Amino acid sequence: MNKKFTNNKDIVAAGKKYTMDTYGQYEVGMVKGEGSYLWDADGKKYIDLLQGVAVNALGHCYPDVVKATQEQAATLTQCANYFYIEPGVRLAKIIIENSCMDKVFFSNSGAESNEGAMKLARKYQKMQGHPERYEVISFKQSFHGRTLATLTATGQDKSHLGFDPLPAGFRYALLNDMESVKQEYNANTAAVIIEPVQGEGGVIPCTEEFLKELRAFCTEKDIVLIFDEVQVGCGRTGYLFAHQGYGVEPDVMTLAKALGNGIPVGAFCARGKFADVLKPGNHGTTYGGNPIATATAAAALTAIIENKLPERAQEMGAYLQERLNEMKKKHPVIKEVRGRGLIVGAVLDLEDAHVVTNPCFEKGLILNCTAGNVLRFVPALNIPKETLDDALEILEQVLTEIGK
Ligand SMILES: *Cc1c(COP(=O)(O)O)cnc(C)c1O
């Protein structure tokens, strides 16, 4: 019954027959990963600049992380959250000692972390005697997840389509525009949720000036400032947490993606007076903070810190932007290059960047396009320079071949 599929054709056929068609997949079955490489079931090798969508900051199957998962799987796999769990407490200590945060709650995903953060904000406002403050301001082109509340917080119409009525209490401001935030603010505002660098929305960094003004505004109005660092936390932007590169401290920070380097785990952390808002019975999850997930994440985060991967993300990100800017001179299809650390976007003068990413895929390069026309580079933070060079050579070849 549980016989393995052994080639692309069989995997694709079974995938089409038995799984929901929500991703519009490439017609291959992936079976193995190592570092910055991925292999499909027919043995074709790919350079992976997507890494599980910005998840494997250490690349596929990083040995210390694999060891932590294996050892924990054979020791204690799942345990009710009615008890403290050793690896969970260990991971919490690592996060708190390396951030401005005071306490953490573990979840399973980014969306679940953002839900928890918004629950915390509403509860805080109720405790302050402001039950009318329930609204959350988010931003156009943002992405916060796929659950009903987080898809509503997501400021993109295409995420909302077909799912109304949407939960009440969400308003959308323009990124890097303080006047727009002030316009959306009212007596019902509980919180602002923002990505320091918008990922899915097309790799759009916040400006330092804007985040500083936003911080001051939220403090003045006593509204909870939530940073969604699900995609850009854990070293990606050149700092362990993205806000550290901005010199701005949020009240609540959410994490997931790179936290477990591929094992599902999320977290939301809170600071100061926000750290003890949630009380027994207010919030919970069965799997969140599960021993395997947290033992794995503790190993992953330790490897990111000890190997100084945030610094490496700064260096390699600068190199990547430089190379793309060179390419831009020869290939006018590249309109703009932007990003922070190793989340880099190349904006293309095309309606659909698949014209570029599909031929790259054929040539063995996995490169993502987001927001329609933006190439999003989110490689492993430890990607060897030569591998990145190989990837850029394929990209340049494709741009030349399509005459752009
Ligand atoms: C991926 C992502 C999410 C959702 O995370 P899931 O684990 O898919 O629920 C939320 N916010 C941001 C910024 C993301 O990039």
UniProtKB/TrEMBL annotation:
CDD domains xref list: OAT_like (cd00610)
Cofactor binding summary note: Binds 1 pyridoxal phosphate per subunit.
Pathway: Amino-acid biosynthesis; L-arginine biosynthesis; N(2)-acetyl-L-ornithine from L-glutamate: step 4/4
Residues that coordinate or bind pyridoxal 5'-phosphate: G110, A111, F143, D228, E229, V230, Q231, T286
Keywords: Amino-acid biosynthesis, Aminotransferase, Arginine biosynthesis, Cytoplasm, Pyridoxal phosphate, Transferase
A GO term from the CC aspect: cytoplasm
Enzyme class, first EC level, given as a word: transferase
Major location category of this protein: cytoplasm
Amino-acid biosynthesis listed as a keyword: yes
Domain of life: Bacteria
Catalytic activity: N(2)-acetyl-L-ornithine + 2-oxoglutarate = N-acetyl-L-glutamate 5-semialdehyde + L-glutamate
List of residues binding N(2)-acetyl-L-ornithine: R146, T285
Cell location: Cytoplasm
Any one GO molecular function term: identical protein binding
UniProt-listed InterPro entries: AcOrn/SuccOrn_fam, Aminotrans_3, Aminotrans_3_PPA_site, Class-III_PLP-dep_AT, PyrdxlP-dep_Trfase, PyrdxlP-dep_Trfase_major, PyrdxlP-dep_Trfase_small
Cofactor: pyridoxal 5'-phosphate
SUPFAM superfamilies: PLP-dependent transferases (SSF53383)
Enzyme Commission code: 2.6.1.11
GO annotation, biological process: L-arginine biosynthetic process
Family designation: Belongs to the class-III pyridoxal-phosphate-dependent aminotransferase family. ArgD subfamily.
Note in the entry: May also have succinyldiaminopimelate aminotransferase activity, thus carrying out the corresponding step in lysine biosynthesis.
Assembly and binders: Homodimer.
Identification of the protein by name: Acetylornithine aminotransferase
